[in-house]
Amino acid sequence: MTNPRIFAMPFSQIYPLYINKVERKGATKADVDEVIMWLTGYSQVQLQQRLASQASLKTFFEEAPDFNANAQLITGVICGVRVEEIENPLLQKIRYLDKLVDEVAKGKAMVKILRK
Questions:
Q1: Is the pTM of this model over 0.90?
Q2: Which of 53, 63, 81, 90 is most buried by its number of CB atoms within 10 A?
Q3: DSSP of 15-77
Q4: CATH code at 76?
């Protein structure tokens, strides 16, 4: 279940879509940044550098400083597929982030989104 096209997409192209999605529902850019930093281990400065560098999704996730061990607690359906059943590790990481952004947009409490 590989999809090289999505892996090659610049993260900086997808990031504004996440922001638009949550802002339409009353959440903020800061909320999106928080879930990205929690999931990947990037700092705010590192995240901004990644956005400026036009890093692909593949590079963004492969070079994440400290991918959160609690990511395995993220469950549910995204794009009609259960995230916990995705076999490709890179695609699963991408879908984990999609799921977190969906939860932010739905107004779920941040403490629950971050699996604390």
A1: yes
A2: 90
A3: HHHHHHHHHHTT--HHHHHHHHHHHH---HHHHHHHHHHT-BHHHHHHT-SS--GGGGG--SE
A4: 1.10.8.290
